[in-house]
Design goal:
With about 300 residues, this protein is α+β, with helices and mostly antiparallel strands. The longest helix is centred in the N-terminal third of the chain and has 11 residues.
Amino acid sequence: MRYASVVHNGRLTAVSVTEHGYRDLSALLHDSSASGDPMLDLLRVIAETELSQEVIEAQPLIPSDEVTVAPLLSRPGKIVAAPVNYEDHQEEMKQLGNVSALGFFLKSPTSVAAHGSTVRLPYSDRRFDQEGELALVIGKRGRNIPQESVAEHIAGYTCLLDLTMRGGEDRSTRKSFDTFTPVGPHLVTPDEVGDLDQLTMTCAVNGTVRQDTDIKDLIWGVPQFVSYVSSVTTLEVGDIITTGTPAGVGVIRDGDTIEVSIDRIGTLAVTVSDEHAVPCPTLGANSGPHAPETITPVRERARS
């Protein structure tokens, strides 16, 4: 199953994605205004009762050309991110520690943006990079979740861009600007995604592939990372957890188009603008981890 958030006739609604258009799921929600985020309300309904294909197909069909894609979740409770979770990224950033030493960091929930939206670079004198990632959405509340039970708490998977300002400021500062967490376009249920170890991800800028990885190369895979996060903080329905980026991060600039593609999940695309950018008021530009100055595009690897 695939779900999305769209705006239809001026109203934000949660939908099921079909080859014929979108099924409006508003009638299935107990109270569509309960949280102000229909996708969050839908996830709570799914946690309580399984939605059958027959029930979903009975809902009204909305033609694709009548909607605008919205952020997958407009009000996620938390955005939890894995720092340095691929060995090749650790090497390119010259980092001594990876996720096993660093744990996780949080991004502001208001940094979420939609597929097809515009990323707004805030400063005219700082470097900003793209970081493509596999992300998941929590579908069942949990605390101290054993690794073998993590799958029970995952509503689905999606694509995410963890956009980053380079420098010495705290990670949560450098990654929490509004529009710096594009996510979507769809939430794909685990049964449709299948084995995570069989997934590949690419991230391209202006059509040139910069990042190309196998999800199995994560230092901490999804079960280990989610279990660890839940040992620190209670995971709530609608929380977004993103798993980290591989090597190939590079500078993004005004006018760029960024695309993240993951097998069986889809493609997330955004554009970049520096309109209204101003000089940065903080002084971290010359400190902190430094990404390579030269971008070396990767070639598509032959995969068995």
